[in-house]
Structures are given as C-alpha cells and as structure tokens.
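To: structure desk
From: M.T.
Subject: fold request, one chain
Message: Could you run this one when you get a chance? Sequence is below, nothing fancy, just the single chain.
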Amino acid sequence: MKAATKVAKTSRTDAEEQLNRFIEKFERADQTLIRAVRKVLRKRFPTANELAYDNYNFFALGYSPTERPSDSIISMAAGSSGVGLCFVRGASLPDPKKILLGSGNQTRFIRVESVEVLSRPEVQELVAAAAAHLAYGIRRDRMGHLFPSIAG
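Reply: Done. Structure tokens follow.
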C-alpha cells in the first residue's frame, strides 16, 4: 500500500469516523493507549490542526499550525512496535536527560508504553521546547481541525 499523500476535506463527524476506523485496526490495549495519547496532545495543542495518516508502516497523528505535515511540531505514531511520540525537529531540541531516541538529521522520538509517560517532567519539557521552536505559532483564537488522510 502506498503512503497517503492527499488530505481529505470532510466534515468533523466524517473525519472522526475515519479516524476511529484507523484506530480500530489495532489491538484493544493499543487502541486505548492511542486514544489516551491523542486526548493529552489535543488538550496540549487545542488549536493545532490534527493531521491523521494511515499507511503501511504507521498510523500517525501530527499536530501542526497548518495543513502541511512538514509544519507539524509533534506527532504520535503507532505501529507493530508500539506507540511513540515523535518530535519533528527533535535533533535541535535540548535533551539534558538524553531520553530522545533516533539518529536522523531532524526527527527524534520517545517510546510511549503508557499515557503516564507524557506527564513526566522531562517529556513535558521536550513538548514545551518543541512548541517554543516554532517559526510561527499555533493560533490561540480558533479550534484546530482534524484532517484524516485518504489511504491510497
């Protein structure tokens, strides 16, 4: 299956239904974790656009000030190896506790075994640092939108 490249223009209800279909492909425990992580990220970034992608490797939810995935600040990725929190510009973030994994030029991640991982101070500091490194901010005067991808 090819990675999705087209963003769907759907109603909020249709988008939520499509998102639920993506999540329902996982085992029940992973579904619960994905929904819990989404709830935390939605609360932290209420005005960000939520970009959902379902491809052959991962299901991901990115949080972006625009509809462009490349502008995402952070994303939750779920696959056969579990759930992770990806910092799109993680290579440039301060990481004094050395919790970020990965060796790419840009992205770093942490594994999320439970939603409690997101409440750890070192993780909250990374999330805050990621948001602060934006060239432009997420607007605070509107609600973000959910844009599920069209799997192709």
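Reply (cont.): The chain is about 25% helix and 20% strand. Let me know if you need anything else for the meeting.
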